[in-house]
Design a protein that fits this description.
Blueprint: E1 11-13, E2 19-21, H1 23-41, H2 45-48, H3 57-69, H4 73-85, H5 93-109, H6 116-126, H7 132-146
Antiparallel strand pairs: 1-2
Protein backbone atom coordinates (compact mmCIF):
# COMPACT_ATOMS: atom_id res chain seq x y z
CA UNK A 1 0.00 0.00 0.00
CA UNK A 2 1.56 3.33 -1.06
CA UNK A 3 -1.14 5.37 0.63
CA UNK A 4 -4.74 4.86 1.48
CA UNK A 5 -5.50 3.35 -1.92
CA UNK A 6 -4.49 -0.32 -2.29
CA UNK A 7 -1.66 -0.70 -4.76
CA UNK A 8 -2.28 -2.85 -7.77
CA UNK A 9 0.13 -5.53 -8.77
CA UNK A 10 3.07 -4.15 -10.78
CA UNK A 11 2.72 -7.01 -13.26
CA UNK A 12 -0.29 -8.58 -14.92
CA UNK A 13 -0.71 -11.48 -17.28
CA UNK A 14 -0.80 -10.26 -20.88
CA UNK A 15 -2.91 -11.55 -23.79
CA UNK A 16 -0.40 -14.23 -24.59
CA UNK A 17 0.04 -15.45 -21.01
CA UNK A 18 3.31 -13.58 -20.31
CA UNK A 19 3.88 -11.11 -17.48
CA UNK A 20 3.69 -7.48 -18.56
CA UNK A 21 3.77 -4.14 -16.76
CA UNK A 22 0.41 -3.18 -15.28
CA UNK A 23 -0.52 0.22 -16.80
CA UNK A 24 -2.80 1.07 -13.83
CA UNK A 25 0.10 0.44 -11.43
CA UNK A 26 2.42 2.64 -13.50
CA UNK A 27 -0.13 5.50 -13.44
CA UNK A 28 -0.58 5.11 -9.69
CA UNK A 29 3.17 5.07 -9.11
CA UNK A 30 3.64 8.18 -11.28
CA UNK A 31 0.89 10.03 -9.36
CA UNK A 32 2.42 9.01 -6.05
CA UNK A 33 5.85 10.26 -7.12
CA UNK A 34 4.35 13.61 -8.19
CA UNK A 35 2.57 13.95 -4.86
CA UNK A 36 5.72 12.95 -2.96
CA UNK A 37 7.74 15.52 -4.91
CA UNK A 38 5.18 18.22 -4.16
CA UNK A 39 5.10 17.36 -0.43
CA UNK A 40 8.89 17.40 -0.19
CA UNK A 41 9.08 20.71 -2.07
CA UNK A 42 7.00 22.36 0.67
CA UNK A 43 9.40 21.30 3.45
CA UNK A 44 12.23 23.59 4.49
CA UNK A 45 15.80 22.39 4.08
CA UNK A 46 16.56 22.28 7.81
CA UNK A 47 13.92 19.60 8.44
CA UNK A 48 14.17 17.85 5.08
CA UNK A 49 16.84 15.52 6.52
CA UNK A 50 14.11 13.81 8.59
CA UNK A 51 12.44 12.61 5.38
CA UNK A 52 15.33 10.83 3.70
CA UNK A 53 13.96 7.31 4.24
CA UNK A 54 10.43 8.19 3.08
CA UNK A 55 9.93 6.78 -0.42
CA UNK A 56 6.20 7.28 -1.00
CA UNK A 57 3.75 10.12 -0.42
CA UNK A 58 2.15 8.04 2.33
CA UNK A 59 5.47 7.63 4.15
CA UNK A 60 6.18 11.35 3.79
CA UNK A 61 2.76 12.26 5.12
CA UNK A 62 3.07 9.85 8.05
CA UNK A 63 6.47 11.36 8.92
CA UNK A 64 4.96 14.86 8.85
CA UNK A 65 2.08 13.73 11.03
CA UNK A 66 4.37 11.98 13.52
CA UNK A 67 6.76 14.91 13.83
CA UNK A 68 4.34 17.83 13.78
CA UNK A 69 0.75 16.64 14.06
CA UNK A 70 0.34 15.24 17.51
CA UNK A 71 0.77 17.28 20.64
CA UNK A 72 2.34 15.40 23.49
CA UNK A 73 0.60 15.04 26.83
CA UNK A 74 3.27 17.29 28.33
CA UNK A 75 2.55 20.06 25.81
CA UNK A 76 -1.21 19.78 26.41
CA UNK A 77 -0.68 19.84 30.20
CA UNK A 78 1.55 22.86 29.79
CA UNK A 79 -1.10 24.68 27.75
CA UNK A 80 -3.77 23.81 30.35
CA UNK A 81 -1.51 25.15 33.09
CA UNK A 82 -0.86 28.35 31.12
CA UNK A 83 -4.61 28.84 30.59
CA UNK A 84 -5.55 28.26 34.23
CA UNK A 85 -2.69 30.34 35.62
CA UNK A 86 -3.16 33.28 33.24
CA UNK A 87 -3.97 36.47 35.13
CA UNK A 88 -5.22 39.77 33.81
CA UNK A 89 -2.33 41.66 35.51
CA UNK A 90 -1.27 44.56 33.31
CA UNK A 91 -3.06 43.36 30.18
CA UNK A 92 -5.96 45.33 28.79
CA UNK A 93 -9.25 43.45 28.79
CA UNK A 94 -8.92 42.86 25.02
CA UNK A 95 -5.36 41.55 25.35
CA UNK A 96 -6.32 39.27 28.21
CA UNK A 97 -9.39 37.89 26.43
CA UNK A 98 -7.29 37.34 23.29
CA UNK A 99 -4.74 35.33 25.29
CA UNK A 100 -7.48 33.18 26.86
CA UNK A 101 -9.04 32.64 23.43
CA UNK A 102 -5.68 31.81 21.84
CA UNK A 103 -4.76 29.26 24.53
CA UNK A 104 -8.24 27.73 24.34
CA UNK A 105 -8.04 27.49 20.55
CA UNK A 106 -4.61 25.83 20.76
CA UNK A 107 -5.94 23.28 23.25
CA UNK A 108 -8.96 22.56 21.05
CA UNK A 109 -6.67 22.16 18.01
CA UNK A 110 -4.59 19.69 20.05
CA UNK A 111 -7.71 17.66 20.77
CA UNK A 112 -8.40 18.88 24.31
CA UNK A 113 -11.89 20.34 24.54
CA UNK A 114 -12.28 23.67 26.33
CA UNK A 115 -15.95 24.59 26.50
CA UNK A 116 -17.14 28.20 26.54
CA UNK A 117 -18.39 27.90 30.12
CA UNK A 118 -14.90 26.87 31.22
CA UNK A 119 -13.38 29.87 29.42
CA UNK A 120 -15.83 32.23 31.14
CA UNK A 121 -15.04 30.70 34.53
CA UNK A 122 -11.30 31.11 33.93
CA UNK A 123 -11.79 34.74 32.91
CA UNK A 124 -14.01 35.58 35.88
CA UNK A 125 -11.69 33.88 38.37
CA UNK A 126 -8.71 35.95 37.26
CA UNK A 127 -10.20 39.39 37.76
CA UNK A 128 -9.16 41.43 40.78
CA UNK A 129 -11.43 42.72 43.52
CA UNK A 130 -12.27 45.87 41.53
CA UNK A 131 -14.27 43.69 39.09
CA UNK A 132 -16.02 41.67 41.83
CA UNK A 133 -19.51 43.08 41.20
CA UNK A 134 -19.24 42.29 37.49
CA UNK A 135 -17.97 38.78 38.27
CA UNK A 136 -20.87 38.08 40.64
CA UNK A 137 -23.45 39.15 38.04
CA UNK A 138 -21.69 37.27 35.23
CA UNK A 139 -21.38 34.13 37.37
CA UNK A 140 -25.08 34.26 38.26
CA UNK A 141 -26.03 34.68 34.59
CA UNK A 142 -23.70 31.86 33.61
CA UNK A 143 -25.30 29.62 36.22
CA UNK A 144 -28.80 30.51 35.00
CA UNK A 145 -27.84 29.72 31.41
CA UNK A 146 -26.13 26.41 32.15
CA UNK A 147 -27.93 25.02 35.21
Amino acid sequence: MLGTIPVLSPLIIGNEGQLVDNPAFLVHKKQDKCLAFWLLSTITNDILVHFTIAKTSFEIWMTIERRFGAKSNIEISSMHHALYSLKKSNFTINEYLSKVKSLSDNLIAAGSLVIEQEQVSIILASFSIEYESICVIASALLCLLTC
